[in-house]
Specification:
Elements (H helix, E strand, L loop, with lengths): L10 H4 L3 H10 L1 E5 L4 E3 L7 E7 L2 E7 L3 E8 L18 E4 L3 E7 H10 L1 H26 L4 H16 L1 E2 L4 E2 L6 H8 L3 H13 L3 E4 L2 E4 L2 H6 L3
Antiparallel strand pairs: 1-7, 2-6, 3-7, 4-5, 4-6, 8-9, 9-11, 10-11
Helix pairs in contact: 3-4, 5-7, 6-7
């Protein structure tokens, strides 16, 4: 679903210099993948930096002990894997949460644009900084003893803040929000997260039906379990 964007609709393009705009248009290769498919996997040699044109993607790591741990959920205009600019293979996998359109830039082209245009550089740095901040926050939460019900509610609230669409009387999360997905973000199991979602639903704060999440009370959601 959602509108079909093109590169020229995105901030990263609009705010770029004419020279950078041309480079972005000329050097990119568009890739479309279906919901549920992987754009790349953890040990893949990835030499391409991807930019989301439309759709949603989840970046995750999987470990033998803890199963899948979801780290970032990203939407249009986001750089997916600028971390590969250091030339090391992918340390993360990327799953399409919806049908996904991305543009891939060979690392050398990306570095070329960055070298020529400082404001574009800033864009890449800010994108990395946002990810780093989110990681700090995840670490902080994992060492805090705040209850899982609050953490889970807070995570859904953040999805609403970042991606939510205002409807009449509720806010809709525009991608499929499954219990498995949430559990992967919380580093918890499905049963526990399912129980928390059921409580949130019984409190009239939200509903999740077949992956469609509607939030009726953002404030209560944000402060739930505090």
């Amino acid at each position: 679903g959602g509108s079909m964007n093109s590169l020229t609709d995105l901030d990263i393009y609009k705010k770029a210099t004419k020279k950078t705009q041309n480079a972005l248009l000329e050097n990119g290769c568009t890739v479309k993948i279906k919901k549920g498919e992987h754009l790349f996997n953890i040990r893949d040699k990835v030499n391409v930096v991807y930019l989301i044109i439309s759709g949603y993607a989840v970046l995750s790591r999987d470990s033998d002990e803890h199963g899948v741990r979801n780290i970032f959920l990203l939407g249009e205009g986001s750089l997916l894997n600028e971390v590969i600019l250091d030339g090391v293979s992918a340390s993360i996998s990327c799953l399409a949460l919806s049908d996904l359109t991305v543009i891939g830039y060979p690392r050398s082209d990306m570095l070329g644009i960055m070298k020529a245009d400082f404001s574009f550089n800033r864009y890449v740095i800010n994108s990395m900084a946002l990810k780093i901040r989110k990681l700090y926050h995840m670490l902080e939460i994992s060492t805090k003893s705040t209850h899982l019900d609050h953490q889970t509610a807070s995570r859904i609230w953040k999805f609403a803040r970042d991606f939510g669409i205002k409807r009449d009387g509720y806010v809709q999360i525009p991608f499929e929000l499954r219990i498995t997905l949430l559990a992967g973000f919380m580093g918890s199991n499905r049963e526990t997260i399912s129980r928390i979602v059921k409580q949130l639903s019984e409190a009239g704060i939200l509903s999740i039906e077949k992956g469609e999440c509607r939030i009726y009370d953002l404030d209560k959601l944000k402060n739930y379990g505090r």
